[in-house]
Amino acid sequence: MAGETQASRNAEGFFFLSAEDAGMALKEKKQIEYLEANLNFHNPEQVLTLYERMLRERVFKTPVGMIYLKRLQDFLLGKEGVDPARVPMIPVYVPCAYSPQRQERPRRAAAGHEEAKPTPPRLRLSILLNVLLAAAVIAMFILALSSSHPNILNYRTAILNEYASWQQNLAEREQVIREKERELKIVE
Predict the structure, then answer these.
(1) Which of 11, 40, 63, 159 could form a disulfide with 22 if both were Cys (CB 3.0 to 4.6 A apart)?
(2) How far apart, in whole angstroms, are the C-alpha atoms of residue 184 and residue 10?
(3) pTM of this prediction?
């Protein structure tokens, strides 16, 4: 809102929170003027169709447009040829019970006494999830290190152990064959 003047936030008798909202109200005022010039009020069916379309497409969002929609609604409800049940209500898309909360100055804690601020629920949930994820990572490392299957952490050791067992197995077989050769007195 820096650089906005009070006059730039006025439009059609309303004071808006921002110049952008006031500009939107002025734009809606131009649309209303165009509709007034081109709409055939002698044909209530055409007015009803346009009214329903404006509600469906949310053409008007500011109080200026809402007042015009209310005028059209009253016009349609006052016509004898239009069934009041066919004239829809004007939906309100913003809460009306909004009241800005009073901002208080931060209190200073007494010297050496820090007030314990309550932890917001999102922060508590975040801390809990981080602890659970850290525990899961530690558990995965423990499982990977203690597993008998080779994995990225212990594949070198597993391959060396397998090679050593093959070598020991071959040496034992060779020893058995040499003993049999001696028994049979086969010499090379």
Answers:
(1) 11
(2) 117
(3) 0.50
